Amino acid sequence: MSSILVLPGDGIGPEIVEQALRVLSAAEQRFDLNVELDQALVGGAAYDAEGDPLPESTLAKARAADAILFGAIGGPKWDTIERDKRPERGLLRLRSSLGLFANLRPAILFPQLADASSLKPEVVSGLDILIVRELTGGIYFGQPRGIKEENGERVGFNTYVYSESEMKRIARVAFDLAMQRGKRVCSVDKANVLEVTELWKEVVTEEAKAYPEIELSHMYVDNAAMQLVRAPKQFDVIVTGNLFGDILSDEAAMLTGSIGMLPSASLDENRKGLYEPCHGSAPDIAGQGIANPLATIMSLAMLMRYSLQRGDVADAIESAVEKVLDQGLRTADIYTEGTRKVSTGEMGAAVAEALSHG
Ligand code: NAD
User: Fold this and answer.
1) C-beta of 282 in contact with ligand 1 (< 6 A)
2) Is the dihedral of CA 172, 173, 179, 182 positive or negative?
3) What DSSP assignment string belongs to 147-170?
4) Which of 11, 42, 105, 289 has the fewest CB atoms within 10 Å, counting from its CB?
């Protein structure tokens, strides 16, 4: 029995999570899946109910679960409350409390949607890359940090720091994942300028010795940013630190055209994970039944693959998504002329139906 905690959150969160749960129940009927579901409040919804965006009860359930399916949090309603109580703080606290240090962001472009990308279809069609970003260290967390007065002016400073053990564990995640894919890893650094990434390059190279089948390459971050828009299909798995990963994963995301199509996972040492769409709570379209649920449905596929070790179920969910795109069904954000515009619920139902029929 595996346990999944569902955290719908705010805005379109509940609408898209509902569709992922529909797909999960179709998966349960088709496969031998033994899943126990629980649900809890997070974000603005939790603040409204309990005065805290991550109540103790939610955190306790998250610690106990094997995996977490997360919708989205936030909205204008909570933008002006005290900083510590804002919905985003709930998510950050959840990630750090659970030690989710490895952020996986696939950028997959279904050939059916190649026109949605700002790049030429032949450059991006069939794109399938995975960015592995270190999520709990690096310059975003390094001490000392701050803004101080020095020689009569203000000086801002941050510390870019990674320990060898932090570098090793993220490298291993990237190598393990690459072994299940194309067996190629590109480690992105700025070793020509920053000592911390000089060490990063050394440590990643040492760790690679345990993976003789992996083809490891290294690239400076400026070149990687350029290569991602020039010839993105050259990559299989990219592994990098928190700051570079933040920027490169957003760049890679845009290659695929719609933010409504992008899933993500954040994993701990034992492959327990939090799975969520890359987008936010989209308050501008919440409650209208037009949000694209596919990023959340594909996050569920990642959950099956990485936390429940059910690659078979993950593959089937992804095939069902592809089948529905082949049928020409599109939510408003990916709609083009000649296709059929459907609602959030119709899209979820179509994927569940396609999954049921195999
Ligand atoms: P957003 O991702 O919510 O929306 C950006 C644009 O993309 C909007 O026009 C929105 O309508 C559209 N969009 C997003 N998801 C979509 C989907 N599934 N289908 C169709 N269209 C979709 O980003 P934002 O507007 O900058 O932020 C809105 C709120 O979400 C803010 O409160 C922000 O703090 C929060 N946020 C939360 C997360 C998270 O929960 N992990 C991430 C980013 C932003």
Assistant:
1) yes
2) negative
3) EEEETTEEEEE------HHHHHHH
4) 289
The answer to whether the CB of 271 falls within 8 A of the CB of 307 is: yes
265 is a domain residue: no
Q: What is the pTM of this model?
A: 0.92
What CA–CA distance (Å, rounded) separates 166 from 266?
A: 15
Distance 285 CA to ligand 1 centre (A): 9
Range with the poorest average pLDDT among 89-93, 153-157, 239-243, 254-258: 254-258
Whether 285 lines ligand 1, by a CB cut-off of 6 Å, is yes
Q: What is the pLDDT of residues 131-163, one digit of tens each?
A: 999 999 999 989 999 999 999 999 999 999 999
Domain of 20: which CATH number? 3.40.718.10
Domain enclosing residue 331, as ranges: 1-103+270-358
For a ligand 1 pocket test, name from 281, 298, 343 the mutation site with the most ligand atoms within 8 angstroms of its C-beta.
281
Residue 353's alpha-carbon distances to 28, 91, 131, in angstroms, are 13, 32, 31
Do 21 and 70 lie in a common domain?
yes
In this structure, the answer to whether residues 133 and 251 fall within a common structural domain is: yes
Ligand 1 pocket, 72 CB below 6 A? Answer: yes
Residue closest to 41 by CA, chosen among 94, 107, 105? 94
For residue 268, give the 3-state DSSP assignment.
Answer: coil
**276 in a domain, yes or no?**
yes
Both tokens of residue 132? Answer: 């592995």
CA of 146 to the centre of ligand 1 (A): 29
24-31 long-range contacts, Cβ below 8 Å, gap at least 24? 24/300, 25/352, 26/351, 26/352, 26/353, 26/355, 26/356, 27/304, 27/313, 27/316, 27/317, 27/355, 29/356, 30/316, 30/355, 30/356, 30/358, 31/310, 31/312, 31/313, 31/316
In a domain, 323, yes or no: yes
pLDDT tier at 31, thresholds 50, 70, 90: very high
